[in-house]
Amino acid sequence: MTDPKDKLRRSQHWFGGTSKDNFIHRSWMKSEGLPADSFDGRPVIGICNTWSELTPCNQTFRELAQRVKHGVMQAGGFPVEFPVSSLGETLMRPTAMLYRNLASMDVEEALRAHPLDGVVLLAGCDKTTPATLMGAASVDLPTVVVSGGGMLNGNYRGQAIGSGTHVWKFSEAVNAGTMTLPQFMQAESSMSRSAGSCMTMGTASTMASLVEALGVALPTNAAIPAVDARRYELAQRAGRHIVDLVNRDVRLSQILTREAFENAIRVCGAIGGSTNAVIHLLAIAGRMGVPLTLDDWDRLGRDMPTIVNLMPSGKYLMEDFYYAGGLPVVMKRLLDAGKLHGEAMTVNGQTIAQNVADAECFNDDVIRPLDKPLVDQGGLAVLRGNLAPNGAVIKPSAATASLLKHTGKAVVFEDIEHYKTRIEDPDLDIDANSVMVLKNCGPRGYPGMAEVGNMGLPAKLLKLGVTDMVRISDARMSGTAFGTVVLHVAPEAAAGGPLALVKDGDMIELDVAQRKLQLLISDEELAQRRAEWQAPPEPASGYVRLYHRHVMQADQGADLDFLVGCRGDAVPRESH
Ligand code: FES
Ligand code: MG
């Protein structure tokens, strides 16, 4: 027999009824000045806010939350805004990624512990999108994501400059002696000149695009600038839609299906998206219980051309992408070519095919037709071999074509400090054909898998005009970065992966077309070195010890092993 309580809206387990507990739940809320009918059974909508002054990319979120509230109220719901851990990419050390899983726990437990029927996730800076969505997936309430939107185009001396991308370019120019330090300082304020997240196709823009592709955000969510009035209008409509989703009981699991993830992977190739998306989507799928592997990325991305001409792979920025028509145009082009599941359902109650039916392109150089792509094979490639038995990732669209098949002598850096001291050594035996190898920067090693994989080239080679070299590590790289950079080598060095065993002078073969990454030494020699390898010590206590013991490798999404899966929205027992 069904418990009659199960027919109740989730929030009514707190706010309905006349018990002592119901009194407590309502009475203290009334101190916020709420009228009694707030508790009459209308949908209670959480607005999960990652606003923080330490996360400049999310600085507009208090205002954005107000607009979501307007929408919720217009649709007859009761909005309640609450804060969760915010993760800012630019300030957090050793890396914001160390805290993605921690923040996801915060979101998950906050959703389950409170009287919420649905949630709107406000996310912007890189890790705030996967962290909030991972937490929400483990609860499976009706859910909508509203992204914060990108900054306006950077502008330095009349030239468009992109978040991150130009930091790498300018700092190399300083090292090469072609830019002065005062110019470098001036560029700082020219780059970040408005509120918003990085306006290149870095991780924030990629994740804002992928939530739209997944159908968990509204059409055009990806590209409207943070300060454009239409961003606020979208937030207000999201508030209306979440009430509708609660009324129809459409859960996140009905949106985040296998088809939705396949659509997102395809879209990631088409937009030239960040390598970080691989790890985040694997982790979100893991929470939702949708089977997804690294090989799905290679298979679905293999024939996918990159058609969005944005930095770091191309030349434009997010503002241009929005004015050209934004993600609906990209999705319409993929759909027309049979590359998307058009029937996938989205949070506005329409399918992907319905949402993009009228999409119109206003600039074919920003969003290219499929037959005139920026890069023919734009998908991320998954490499394997004795150096990466469980896989490694490279973004061919951001690499140098001539280096995609390359054999060279390893120059090894044992960790990031070793790299920083050694790279400056004028006597370092390195040339343009060398393969730079960086160890101990993976999930356990760094810890947190920092964005250091695109390690800078030695100044003496930059001065000779060398612009790219093959680099291999167990690290990640910023989505705004570029170069022939092999990332996410699994297992990582700190977990005893073969990367830990590479020595100076070893020959390494990279063949992206063959999906191969091979250390050219004998199996006997490798076994010998493995016998001599010693694991680094684990952290003594605190969160980092929990993380170190439970973090999974990059090929599994780098989530904590005990967080995988959906634990549902069951109402916990009473508190008093
Ligand atoms: Fe926050 Fe790039 S640093 S989005
Ligand atoms: Mg980043």
UniProtKB/TrEMBL annotation:
InterPro entries: Dihydro-acid_dehy_C (IPR042096), DiOHA_6PGluconate_deHydtase_CS (IPR020558), ILV_EDD_C (IPR056740), ILV_EDD_N (IPR000581), IlvD/EDD_N (IPR037237), Sugar_Degrad_Dehydratases (IPR052352). Keywords: Iron, Iron-sulfur, Lyase, Metal-binding. Residues 365-558 form the Dihydroxy-acid/6-phosphogluconate dehydratase C-terminal domain. Residues 42-355 form the Dihydroxy-acid/6-phosphogluconate dehydratase N-terminal domain. GO terms for molecular function: hydro-lyase activity; iron-sulfur cluster binding; metal ion binding. It comes from the Bacteria. It holds the Pfam family ILV_EDD_C. The keyword Lyase applies. Belongs to the IlvD/Edd family. PANTHER family: HYPOTHETICAL DIHYDROXY-ACID DEHYDRATASE (EUROFUNG)-RELATED (PTHR43183:SF1), HYPOTHETICAL DIHYDROXYACID DEHYDRATASE (EUROFUNG)-RELATED (PTHR43183). This is Dihydroxy-acid dehydratase.
